[in-house]
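It is worth pausing here to work through a concrete case rather than discussing structure prediction in the abstract. The textbook approach is simple: state the sequence, then state the predicted structure, then interpret. We follow exactly that order.
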Amino acid sequence: VFIAQSRASGSHRDVEDEELTRIFVMIPKFYTEEDLREKFKMYGDIEYCSIIKNKTTGESKGLGYVRYLKPSQAARAIEECDRGYRAILAEPKNKSSESLEHDYYSNNTRQEPRGNTLPFCGQPEFCSFEKNESRIQESVSKRLSVVSRLPLIQEQLFALFDLVPGLEYCDVQRDPHTNSGYAVIQYSTAASAIYAKYKLHGFEYPPGNRLTVIFLEDGSDSSE
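Step two, the predicted structure:
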C-alpha cells in the first residue's frame, strides 16, 4: 500500500511534510497538549501537538493537531485511534485554520447513526462529547443499498463488503439503460451494516467512482 501524490504537489519531501504526517482531530475541550500527546504517542514518534484556541478567550475549540515523524505513523493513528477523535489528515498549513475547521465540521458531522454499536463511548470523556452533537435520525437496518455510476462486479463487491464481519449476501444488478451499478448488501447485525456504511459510503471503487451506500428497510425494529 502506498500514498499517491498529485503532480502539482511539488517535491516528495514537501508533500510528506505538509500532507502526510500531520493529523487533525476533534478532542474534548478540557484536553491539554500533554493529554493529546499521551493519547496519540502509542502510534509513533510525535514531533509536536497543538490545540486550536479561541483567540479572544484562550479557551480550546475542541480541535487539535498531532504531527508525526513518518507518514505511516500518521496513517496508523487515523486508522486505529478511537473514532470519537474523528482523525483526518490535516490540510497544508497554507490553508487557513478557519476554513479547515469549517470543512472539518461540515464533513464530519454528516449524520451517521451512532450509539453503543460504534466504539465512541468507550472512553468517559467522549460520552458527554457525543451527546452534544446535533444529529438527524436515520432509519437503520441490516440491509444496505449500494449505487455506482459504473457497473459493479459481484465477486469484487462481495470481497469489499466482506471486510466487515457478518456479511450474509451481496446481490449485484445492472441498469441496462444507463450501465450504472446497483447492489443490495445484507449483514447479520445492524451494527455490521452501520460500520460498513460508515467505512464504505464515498469509498472510491474503482478509483474515481464513489460508491453511495444507504440503508434499506428490512422490516426489523430499527430501535434495536
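Step three, interpretation. DSSP finds seven helices and eight strands in the chain. Residues 97-108 form the longest helix (12 residues).
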